[in-house]
Amino acid sequence: MIHRRQFLQTSAALISAAGLDACGPPLDPARADLSLDIQPAHFNVMAGGPTQNMVSLAANAPPPVLRARQGMPFVANVTNRLTDYTTMHWHGVRLPNEMDGVPYLTQFPLRQDESFRYEFTPPDAGTYWYHPHCMTMELMALGLTGALIVEEKEDPGFDSDIVLNLRDFRLGDDGQFTDLYTARGAARGGTLGTVMTANWTQDPTYDAPTGGLVRLRVLATDTARIYKLFLPGAKGKIIAMDGHPVAVPLPWPTADDPLILSPGQRVDFAIEMPSDEGQEISLMTDAPGAARRLARLRSIGGRENRSIADLNPLAPNQLCEPELAGAEVVEFVFGWSPSGDLPNNGLCGTLGYTFWSINRTPWPGDASGVGPLATLKQGGSYILRLRNESPNAHPIHLHGLAFKPIRSNKRELAANWTDTALLLKGETLDVALVADNPGDWAFHCHVIEHQKTGLAGYIRVA
Ligand code: C2O
Ligand code: CU
Ligand code: CU
Q: CA nearest 299: which of 278, 281, 282?
């Protein structure tokens, strides 16, 4: 028997799961699906007039923050309104393989005006994101990256929840796009943008209650930039990395010891707002030359005087612990491409050159039909040994499964769950996982120019 109070809670949950206004009339849950159009957009990224030819999921606005609830169905009908082919991928979410949005591997690319119904029940709460996986370089560079928040079953008790989608755009002085990628960048650390933004805006300010508690969710959705974050003078704590609550505590970042957030990664900060109205906290990134401010939080309104100790700690997501003793080691080497063959591109684009490889084999193109890099037995524990023989760093991302870094030849590691781990120059990094989600899971560098010029493949769990 369902009590009225429970019923009200459930319908409120469904409405918020669909990202709809909680003040509207109760909706039939079957009709609460999201309808999302991938569409052209223009927006004032720089002063002096809108940037044209952007790509979003909203009319002339940045891609919206989508909200789902842990353990509740999420449904998004995504329609492609571009002339380019594309797909949508839900980065970090452990979902059924056929919902993963990887062209040719899990679905066919969507042509203009074609729709795909993405439907999954996120098992893990936290900060995730979405981006296309076909024409990936162009569409991400033009703007199509956004946050997907999976809300905890229990409210941790913040006064405010602020999402910062960090990324660059490559714009000329006229505010219009220049070349989106370069051969020079693709062969090195990736091509950086010219304008740093948070939520498509340069140095925006967000208000939060004076003395209140803010959950600041920061997403590195840039195609190349490795952020080095710190918040001078702020009092706070890192509560989650890459979606998952931190089990091994991470130090509060400083200018001398910033938090490295590489493309694809996310961090959730719990922050105590300053106790005087009008005071600000800056989110900074270290960059060649000088540190740069990315965004500001400003204290506004009456005094709350809350402390981080007031928060309910985040419940850990339910993940299977790998058994390290008997785990099979599977080796991967990331490096240059042994041959300069052109990738074959299907409908999902090629940059026109090949520079990189996994296990000395460059990804031959999305439509190539090649086999997996490795096949893992469903339910088995594995150690993936990731070895970098190139002089560049690579944020290595695995779809569909969470893993834990356990060992490095270069540094001390915090063994927190993740889906994207930065592999340093000269590093051999062991990561452990349980292969508990069946399917073909893309495995690639999240510097998109590396991914699209060879540093990609997939791992089969069967
Ligand atoms: Cu966020 Cu395969 O990517
Ligand atoms: Cu992903
Ligand atoms: Cu890379």
A: 278
